[in-house]
Amino acid sequence: MRILHQSQGFTTFEQAYEMAEKSNQPVLYSKTMEVESIDPLQFYEAGYSIFNGSRSFWQDPKSELVFAGAGSAKTFYIKEEERFDSLSVQWKSYLKNAVIEKGKAWTGPVILGGFSFDPKKKKSVEWSAFEQGYFQLPAFMLTVDQYGKTFLTMNVECKKGDHAVQVWNQMQKQKTALLNKSVSSLKDVNVLAIKEFDPEEWKSSLTSVVGQISRGEVEKVVLARKVKVTFDDQKRSDSVLEKLRDDQSESFIFSFESGDSCFIGATPERLIKKHQQQVLSTCLAGSIARGKTVEEDQQFGNELLNDEKNLGEHEIVVRMISKSLEDLCSELTVPDQPVLMKMRDIQHLYTPVEGMTARSSILEFVKELHPTPALGGTPTSEAMQIIREEEEMDRGFYAAPVGWLNAEGDGEFAVAIRSGLLSGKHAYLYAGCGVVKDSDAEGEYQETLIKLRPMVRAVGGTIS
Ligand SMILES: C=C(O[C@@H]1C=C(C(=O)O)C=C[C@H]1O)C(=O)O
Ligand SMILES: [Mg+2]
């Protein structure tokens, strides 16, 4: 990897081509520059006409960092079950042949995407575009950082035989279009139907899992279900992102397009953030509705903070995450008590965990942590086997790690809950709940309804 610290423009681009010619291997040319401030969602929408099907979006809570990607210079389709190691190896090896110009910007080349929840589960058709892992190195990526500075990164794979001047000119043209295009308003798309798949059967399998728990076979299992939404026309990810950004600014907002499909959502749950030696993870489990008045909301919150069933659900997650991170970190801070995290429709028990590490890649943490008992269960392998058997559906990327990673191995991954898959005139939305010994089927079913609400609303529907 060569990192150039001055803006040398076309000359370095030509050098990347010379390297490609000589080595007979593709060479990544990546250039980051500061640009005038532009709304990242406008950039994403401007990418629709040329890059529909290969756009990406990421916004962290309180939008301290936003990425919008248009087009893909390189797509990593991960097919192996060992998906975290596989991406790590491929990304490192890809960066060996790279010319990176980034001046003072810290971003440079970044890949965005996600992994499957369970590679052992049989894949359903709707998830076929995503494999076991799907990451894009955007051809054009806009970054808005915590200071409100805006950067554009252009990535292009230089290949032997390509015409450098033509590629350069096309890049400049596309860049101008993305940064200047005014966006036309999106067409209204209506929800025709929302279908639940046999809730009674789901409740009865939940009851049978409670039985397994009370017999001591497992301690906790997270069971999920999906609903299918039908629209009168193709639902665009742009409009869903817009709604999520209005309603769920406390959450991670993401979208990853793969051809006609798009995995999209707004999740409150951080899996891991790594910035140099600092790491941060989140234990999030235990839920209650928001109150209708301030008093009722506080009362619900207090109830949750003192509820044995929910505290139990939460404690299992804290135990596992602390233990996993202990092996990877030198110092670990774990508060004794959870606090409340409140979103528009729901409140959760929340414990942040912080540590210091000497490890170089965030993917080592993802591999160690996934699946946490917030989405899988405990003991992990028994819980995963029960999920495989009891859940009819393929979770795909739901409840799995999604996020981004840079050339230094730093980045951030969230757990993709409160999410769905857009696919033409349909959307599949997912929600689950932690089943423990005191769970009752109707209560857990109601909890999944609350958890579905943000995504149902974002696609333009309503659910009870
Ligand atoms: C599984 C989901 O959420 C998880 C389950 C929770 C619970 O059961 O209390 C709370 C937060 C998440 O860890 C989901 O939203 O789909
Ligand atoms: Mg719960």
TrEMBL record:
Its EC number is 5.4.4.2. Keywords: Isomerase. It catalyses: chorismate = isochorismate. One of its GO terms (molecular function) is isochorismate synthase activity. InterPro entries: ADC_synthase, Anth_synth_I-like, Chorismate_C, IsoChor_synthase. It is an enzyme of class 5 (isomerase). Residues 199-451 form the Chorismate-utilising enzyme C-terminal domain. Gene3D superfamilies: Anthranilate synthase. The keyword Isomerase applies. It comes from the Bacteria. GO terms for biological process: salicylic acid biosynthetic process. Belongs to the isochorismate synthase family. PANTHER family: ISOCHORISMATE SYNTHASE ENTC (PTHR42839), ISOCHORISMATE SYNTHASE MENF (PTHR42839:SF1). This is isochorismate synthase. It comes from Jeotgalibacillus malaysiensis.
